[in-house]
Amino acid sequence: MSGTPDVSVVVAVYNTMPYLTECLNSLIGQSIGRERLEVVAVDDGSTDDSGPELDRFAALYPDTVKVIHQPNSGGPAAPSNRALDVATGRYVYFIGSDDYLGEEALERMVKCADENDSDVVVGKMVGTNGRYVHQALYKENVADVSLYDSALPFTLANTKLFRRDLVEKHKLRFPEHLPVGSDQPFTIEACVRARKISVVADYTCYYAVKRGDASNITYRADHLARLRAAAEIVDFTAGLIEEGPGRDAVLRRHFTWELAKLVQDDFPSLDRELQRQLCAGIGRLADAYFTDGIRDAMDVKRRVRIALAQAGAVDELAEAISSEKEHGAPPFVVEGERAYARYPGFRDPRIGVPDRVYELVGEAVPGRLAKGTELLASGWEQQGETLAYTASVRLPILGDVEGAGPALRLVKGAMPKSADKPGARRLKAGHELAPVVGGMRVETAEDGAACVLHARVPLELVNGKRGVRVYVDVAGSTYEIPVRGKGLPMPLARRWGRDDDPYRASALVNSKGRVVVDTAQMYPPKTTVVRRALGGLVRKLKSRSKRKK
Length: 549
What we know:
It contains 17 helices and 22 strands. It is of the alpha+beta class. α8 packs parallel to α10 and α10 packs across α12 (300-310). The longest helix has 23 residues, at 526-548. The chain is globular, with a radius of gyration of 32 Å. It starts with 6 loop residues before the first strand and ends with a helix. Residues 215-220 have low confidence and may be disordered.
């Protein structure tokens, strides 16, 4: 290689065969060309064939690939630092040795940095083999994005293009004592110091691989190691960014992601002492940094778990997690325009967690409402020629239930596709609903954990299917919820209407598990029969006439 390369790609390697081969091939095949590229790979004491594979590539491409071998350090920080010490490119880029790049990735990112005078460029990342990668940042190309008012805090991996002058000016290196998350302090400080950060979103630059053996170090770290790493990162960030909305915007990621992951489904089964240690660690960080702004920006489930940990309410926290895993989200306590998720600890004076923690703050709840809405009974009620469909539906709401205006309607047409996944939808503001016809009555369920809507809806003498749907007002929004059958026997079909013009009504469960009422004319009136017969006779006569001609 002659002159200074445009980009040095740093690869920290430890036992990543056979993924390493695809990674290196994706680098060598970059459209930017090998004359503009430097690959610095550091073998961190691998015990598989990773070391020999690196040497093979170095022998094949001696002007492009540099290989350093060192004893195992226990994480990616030390080999990454070693590579930075010898990198010579104008920019430096980091890649996991089990991941790979799109062919034009480096060319596009370097071009973006040069055209925009960017210190940091974030190329679009996607996950493979079930690996989750946050996508909100990649909606469009952005020449100058802020760390404080974008989705960038949820994309803090070091897999970005950094101007090497920025890295060396501020002596940016990775903390080698952190087993996980060592890239975050580096990335956060680089973004804080950067004059401009750009996003390349119109091309997939990076493919993050979840290995089949799930041996990525992030997945192997234990709870306390992850807590210590998260705590150090949070403290580091707080020392770097002054208190206020900007710092909240970054730290919200750590409360929503790293800390909330410590109180997930496995928490109730952990050793009691470990549970206490996790709550104490989360509590210290919450006492120092869990501001009202961070709290209100989080979803209610994670917010409640952080607050219960902060209060040291280990039993209530374990109950909240295990109950939601087994039964779904808790019911909502509706009080006028406000609604609260009734997780354990709600308004418990011994715990003292504020109501605001349990309140639904600007978040939609279709999934929670749909999962808790259940048909308990259905049937027919006939008075003379009038037939009504009757249903008892369990709804996961309590409190000012009448104020929530629950109602059942029979609605023509399918639910929008956008509503199919969560099973409910939040209607737009100002949406007008047809008036309720029939009777509605609400009472508290026997177990005190929900309410039951008893409805009577008269049927119309029309042909067609009508979806059985519930409408309810929660936290200032109206939700439409399709009622599901859940294996409950449907009432037998019923005939009703005039003797000379009878209709047939049946209730059924469609392919999506939703209850539908189907009404159909059993046979047409006599006048219609005569018209059809005359029409058939005319068609036959015309046909005979044509054949004779």
